[in-house]
Amino acid sequence: PFTGSLSSMGKSVKIALEEAQNDVNKYFGEMNSPSYFRILMADSKTSPEESLVAIKKLHESGAKIIVGPATSTAVSAAKEYADENDIILLSYASTSPLLSIEEDNLFRLVPDDTYQGKIIAERMINDGIKVIVPLWRGDIYGNGLYNSTKSNFEKLGGKVEEGINYQPYTGKFATSLHRIN
Question: Is the model's pTM score more than 0.85?
Answer without folding.
Answer: no
